[in-house]
Amino acid sequence: MLGIIPSALMSREAHDPVVYGENVVVDSMHDRKFKMYQASDGFIALPGGFGTLDELLEVLYVVPFLFIGLPKFCKPDVYLFCLVFAE
Questions:
Q1: How many CB atoms lie within 10 A of CB 74?
Q2: pTM flag (> 0.85)
């Protein structure tokens, strides 16, 4: 597994390479999204919040993705998006 994390989050997030696999540190969230796109053949999105939705929309028409989630597990700000995919 490859983890891509902005340097500003290094002190607040778990990033042990033994547990989480390879880690790549980047300067910003924009760099993180670009690096994720470069390193991926596809994406899997689990229920989350606005950040999950933001990252999924970045790649929506570029690479294959799988959105795993039911509306009851989505946060309210993502509920509409979950309903669209449920239909």
A1: 22
A2: no
